[in-house]
Amino acid sequence: MTPVLALDNLSIAAGSKLLVSNLSFSLARGERLGLIGESGSGKSLTALAATGLLPAGLSPAGSAKLGGTEVIGTPNRALDRLRGTAVAIVFQEPLTALDPLMRIGKQVAEPLARRAKRDDAPLSGAALKQAVLALLAEVALPEPERIAQAYPHELSGGQRQRVAIAMALACKPDLLIADEPTTALDVTTQAEIWVCLTGWSASATWHCFLSATTCPLSPTPSARSWCSDRARP
């Protein structure tokens, strides 16, 4: 079976400086993987390279495949069809992923509507609103109706991160990448976010690649971890 994600000798360089060196692993259907390392070891760069989102000035080499489709060297426009279907990302700081001028409900509704359209089961009006509220409840947000009417700055950091998770899950991706999603949160909220993420990956048919400085994954047969020093195996 084709892996959901497969990296083969992935390297990332900034000019002559090597940031990630010959990293290889694969993620099969139903697995969870934690990539663990100190700050600056290349975890986030690995996640960005796997989705074709590396910033200008960084050069990837090797291979990164999403569901069998090569990412390295593929034009950005061609990769757009994979984002939100083959893969979705929860970033470290949700404020960078949320529109400060748009209510939360509308932001969650957009990926829900797009996915429903792709599935030939379009959602609109009251049905879309109920789907938004149901998804906010699924990520354990209190008072979904109030949250849906709020703007990002009116929510706590943990609530904003749950919204970001809801938006990623709305896409129903094959692979969910969580790039250090709890770094800026207090310890209690960190635990709640990890419970939310691991609960979804355990109960759904999705596959979760977790990039984190510590390993909160439960020791189940479907959970693996890689310890990284400058993202070298």
Overview of the molecule:
The chain is α/β, with parallel strands linked by helices and about 230 residues long. The protein has one domain (about 30-55, about 80-230): P-loop containing nucleotide triphosphate hydrolases (Rossmann fold), CATH 3.40.50. Helices cover about 35% and strands about 25% of the residues. The chain contains seven helices and nine strands, in the order βββαββαβααααβαββ. A five-stranded parallel β-sheet has the order 6-7-8-3-9, with helices on both faces. A four-stranded antiparallel β-sheet has the order 2-1-4-5, covered by helices on one side. Mean pLDDT is about 85; it is low at about 220.
Summary tags:
single chain; 233 residues; alpha/beta; Rossmann fold; 5-stranded parallel beta sheet; 4-stranded antiparallel beta sheet; 9 strands; globular
